[in-house]
């Protein structure tokens, strides 16, 4: 990738834009139209300047306009904006086709086959500032970012907001959750016309009138504020950066690059999931040897707390006692579940910690929690503990303890730590060295940096991080593979509470929205289907099992209690069997918010696992078993809804387990109950 | 209005909430429901705390829920938010019924008949901060504001945003324009379901499914940032304050009050216009004697510029030459039009002034503009000049010149100065005393203060202000009567340009949206119906006349050129006759964005004037002449569309003038052409 001298000019202009080899176009006088296509030619991105000399980009798919001319640019809090009076001074093209390996993931091998176009924008007015826009175009979507190169008149950027637009060329349906509301990211998904979206968080997924699916998001969000999508009118969205406590939403010294703004584009919902654009736009692993990161399931001293039967605070109902935890260790060990999460184990929970975690001490266990003894006991049972650092949103207080928190975790063989930032949006406590107090947003630049500080500090101690109340996932697991999972949405915990139970469609929304960004710690497997005070969870037993395949995470909880699992020995077999790390993944069918069926092959066997889930509607899905190895016989161990199963009635508890012999080329019929699902292990013979 | 000691408690709780006399309720333990009703009992506002001890208010109309429980509160950039753990510690009620006089306006007398409720909110947590919410309830709507009293633990508020919600209880239609877009306020109105609004500026007008009309806005916006309405999901809006260059959107020392958040509520669109809530919520005149403020029409050296035939810059096509201006003075004098606006008269226009007005000198005329001679000449003709200060958005540069700018205006007998801030949103140049550079928004706190600084400085010199690219109008003309008009929307100037002509519905939108906030300098009266290069304006001649009544402003331009007016002597008679100051106003009919008919009585005669305008649809309206004096005969001088008039064809130029004798009790039939209108003078005999 090189920038041509201006002299090259028109000579290389004609014709060559889509050639196989790297080509260079540069025009000194008349601004060129800059166009790049995807490797298969289906997607084309064009950058121009409009009548007001404002740069705009547009995208076509198979020749049809998908993204109408959309602005590029920035406003700053202390300098003129970069948007008008812009000239395209050079356009360079590049391409690459490579394959890389995930240390853990849904796929072992990831292909990155893309074309790239760098468009250099320069102001014609006094400052002559330069910003490059770089487009990365795959067959499955487009990413672009701004790159601010080193230059004489532009040393520091105080960004008030981005002017970046996404002008969808036609209306359709959008699945989205609102931005800037008090409860951070824990909202159910709205399904509305695109033209009725308010201000949305990303991932926002849309299905245009012509059936094309687009997932709007960002990749590689570091040292920048998270992007939301504000709809002005019609179907045009504008980047709306998350605020911080400071005047600019982003403050950076040049040179720097923004995160990638991404649009995954496909014919259908499964196609969105099968794209690797998000990961490809993140940088390779920066942690070196990461063999110490171990995907796996875990149980935990948690569901009884979230249900209100045990407490995080010390006292007669304290959950994290040495005796309780030993029972969970025994249970995990007996069922080959490697991890045991313990919450409420440390000093700081006694009092009002919501939004105020300044009493939390992440290396001081409560007196009834014998950390050394439990570490020893767990190790003897082949199990490790998962630590828990709940900050109550007091991020600076946590920053001050990071090293000793993770030293404590490492000293006690905790391979994963779950973090928490339970406070309302905009209420993160930041205290600077000078004692000044600030209130930050979970997804603002300061917190984006905080989360990564936690992850990289943890890596020094060989600890993996499962962030709750996190910044959204933008594929950074590629670069920092110890960032194994996040919450960042409505998990199963809502099903513990009397009010606000997740509706059956929720997980079929998650797969095609939030989880396009990365793994979610949803905590499936509540086979009792019962929250506090006996309240009914709107699911079926078979669906709880299917979630282990449908909702990908390298660390997955078996969220119910040992006592409850004892009541379902046959169903629990699937939870014991299902792995959390995959060689290959295929999304066999699906519609956003309606249903999805995913098949995955473990890294360690020739088996396949299948999970199929539906919304409030029962449905029958026919699945060709094309993913199986040719010539091999499999025993399908099927965990399915029974004929009378229905999430709305006591029949939700009904399920059936059966086996069937199948081969590649067979077709399987999945009968899903209303609110139900089906889980299958294809055991290779 | 008093606050009771806490001891009074439950004794006064029962029953008295709606009594005629002032009553006081205070509850120390159980938070009371606080309710206030409008004088006629149709509207009721209730404040409670919800399960999370968050304060919410709701509004019913005739017993039906209109605004569902909606949050109240604030987030701060440097302190915990004020929203949870809130207790209602006292509720006081008050009422008043008075009438006050406008020095100029749509009505001379304004009745303010309201009930008031003050709800004191106090935190139960450490800081024990106190905020009062004060509701002002009229029959035509509700206003409320937050009052931050003096208190020990709360000396300064750095407001990140308001949590104030407006949860409309049902869907319907909304008329709105987008907030935070590049072009400030100059957008056409969107008409969408309420549930499809993005982020809207106020005034936003909605018509609920049951027909109820609500206009959401604010009143008395001073030393605070303007409020926009962000829709999260459904029909719930949240206050979204305009940003500034600083970290907080608003920064204030306690004690202070916010602007009033207003909801004008009516059965129909005319009912919205007839409300005086907006003005009643502003403070009385602070300027003392304002008899020097003279409402009136004006012509100007302008239309030929905006059309591109003359220039603001000096040179061969310079508009503001002594000779040209004398012609306009002659024309104004001959037609009893008191004002002559001149743009481009001062040093600073030669160069790129858009977004950069640092060359502007507001007391230095160009060499071809003899200011002293013109002032003398105008005075001799009974005419005054209207000054023009275009800042190009360089507000600090203007601040430095304010005194000499208005001294120059006063020295040259300019009774009005039109100001301008032509730059993109977020691009106002602010330079502090220390030389630091900032970029501000037109409607942020700093600019809100700037505009008022301009107005109060102008008042010292007895100069009135007509702000272009202003902050929106929130009724401050009551407090500062020299703030006579603003632009703040798409005016007729868009009709000068080839692209972007206003559609016929535009003015019927303006009346029931922006102009509920106050007078707009729309510049009607382009009888030639022709913009640059002969481009057609989407109007009829009769509609251009009708706009003088339909669109209220105390200063109104006759925007076309003297040469063009010479071609329409009969139609021009109406422009010569129509006054700009009114004793009484009646909105006879109307639907937002479709049509409106308004009758107004001048302050100086027994005449009435009527203006009726329609959108792209022709329509026949029947108007009972109930507003005329009983027993008096009137000659109706009618300026109407002809049978073949149509804005879409050359027929748009066709009109008819006729007279008719009418009396109170008669009915008049108005036949409006597509895109047309009708103007009537009822001359009292």
TrEMBL record, chains A, B:
Pfam families: GH97_C, GH97_N, Glyco_hydro_97. It is an enzyme of class 3 (hydrolase). Residues 37-284 form the Glycosyl-hydrolase 97 N-terminal domain. InterPro entries: Aldolase_TIM, GH-type_carb-bd, GH97_C, GH97_catalytic, GH97_N, Glycosyl_hydrolase_97. Residues 1-19 form the signal peptide. It comes from the Bacteria. Keywords: Glycosidase, Hydrolase, Signal. GO terms for molecular function: alpha-1,4-glucosidase activity; carbohydrate binding. Residues 302-488 form the Glycosyl-hydrolase 97 catalytic domain. The keyword Chloroplast does not apply. Residues 581-682 form the Glycosyl-hydrolase 97 C-terminal oligomerisation domain. PANTHER family: GLUCAN 1,4-ALPHA-GLUCOSIDASE SUSB, GLUCAN 1,4-ALPHA-GLUCOSIDASE SUSB-RELATED. This is Alpha-glucosidase. It comes from Sphingomonas jinjuensis.
């Amino acid at each position: 990738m090189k920038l041509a001298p201006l002299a090259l000019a028109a000579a290389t202009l004609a014709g060559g834009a889509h050639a196989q080899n790297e080509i260079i176009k540069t025009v000194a006088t008349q601004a060129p139209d800059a166009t790049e296509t995807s490797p298969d030619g289906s997607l084309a991105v064009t950058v121009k300047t409009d009548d007001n000399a404002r740069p705009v980009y547009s995208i076509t798919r198979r020749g049809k306009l998908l993204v109408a001319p959309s602005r590029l640019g920035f406003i700053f809090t202390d300098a003129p904006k970069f948007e008008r009076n812009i000239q395209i001074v050079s356009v360079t093209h590049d391409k690459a086709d490579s394959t890389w390996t995930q240390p853990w993931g849904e796929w072992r091998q990831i292909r990155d086959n893309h074309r790239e176009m760098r468009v250099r924008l320069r102001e014609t007015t006094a400052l002559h500032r330069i910003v490059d826009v770089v487009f990365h175009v795959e067959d499955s979507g487009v990413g672009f970012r701004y790159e601010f190169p080193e230059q004489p008149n532009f040393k520091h950027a105080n960004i008030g907001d981005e002017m970046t637009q996404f002008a969808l060329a036609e209306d359709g349906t959008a699945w989205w959750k609102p931005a800037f509301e008090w409860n951070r990211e824990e909202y159910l998904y709205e399904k509305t016309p695109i033209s009725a979206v308010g201000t949305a968080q990303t991932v926002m997924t849309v299905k245009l009138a012509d059936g094309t699916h687009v997932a709007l998001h960002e990749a590689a969000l570091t040292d920048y504020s998270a992007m939301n999508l504000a709809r002005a009118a019609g179907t045009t969205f504008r980047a709306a950066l998350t605020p911080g406590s400071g005047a600019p939403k982003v403050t950076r010294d040049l040179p720097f690059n923004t995160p990638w703004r991404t649009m995954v584009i496909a014919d259908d919902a499964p196609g969105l999931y099968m794209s690797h654009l998000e990961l490809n736009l993140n940088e390779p692993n920066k942690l070196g040897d990461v063999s110490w990161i171990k995907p796996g399931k875990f149980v935990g001293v948690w569901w009884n707390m979230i249900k209100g039967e045990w407490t995080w605070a010390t006292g007669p109902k304290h959950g994290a006692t040495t005796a309780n935890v030993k029972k969970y260790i025994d249970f995990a060990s007996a069922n080959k579940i490697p991890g045991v999460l313990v919450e409420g184990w440390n000093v700081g929970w006694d009092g009002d910690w919501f939004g105020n975690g300044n009493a939390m001490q992440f290396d001081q266990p409560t007196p009834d929690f014998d950390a050394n003894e439990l570490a020893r006991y767990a190790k003897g049972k082949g199990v490790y503990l998962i630590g828990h650092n709940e900050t109550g949103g007091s991020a600076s207080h946590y920053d001050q303890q990071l090293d000793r928190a993770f030293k404590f975790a490492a000293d006690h063989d905790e391979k994963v730590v779950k973090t928490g930032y339970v406070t309302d949006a905009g209420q993160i406590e930041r205290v600077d060295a000078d004692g000044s107090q600030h209130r930050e947003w979970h997804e603002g630049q300061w917190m984006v940096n905080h989360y990564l500080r936690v992850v990289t500090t943890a890596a020094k101690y060989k600890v993996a991080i499962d962030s709750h109340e996190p910044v959204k996932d933008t594929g950074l697991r590629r670069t920092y593979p110890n960032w194994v999972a996040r919450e960042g949405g409505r998990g199963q915990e809502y099903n513990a509470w009397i009010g606000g139970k997740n509706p059956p469609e929720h997980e079929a929304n998650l797969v095609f929205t939030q989880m396009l960004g990365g793994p979610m710690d949803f905590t499936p497997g509540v086979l009792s289907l019962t929250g506090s005070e006996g309240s009914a969870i709107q699911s079926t037993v078979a669906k709880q099992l299917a979630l282990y395949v449908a909702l990908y995470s390298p660390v997955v909880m078996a969220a119910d209690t040992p006592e409850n699992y004892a009541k379902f020995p046959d169903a629990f077999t699937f939870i014991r069997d299902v792995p959390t790390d995959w060689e290959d993944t295929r999304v066999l069918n699906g519609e956003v918010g309606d249903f999805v069926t995913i098949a995955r092959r473990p890294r360690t066997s020739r088996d396949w696992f299948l999970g199929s889930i539906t919304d409030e509607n029962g449905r029958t899905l026919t699945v060709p078993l094309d993913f199986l190895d040719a010539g091999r016989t499999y025993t399908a161990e099927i965990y399915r809804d029974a004929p009378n199963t229905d999430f709305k009635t006591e029949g939700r508890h009904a399920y059936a387990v059966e086996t069937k012999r199948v081969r590649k080329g067979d077709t399987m019929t999945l009968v899903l109950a209303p609110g139900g699902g089906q889980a299958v292990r294809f055991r290779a013979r």
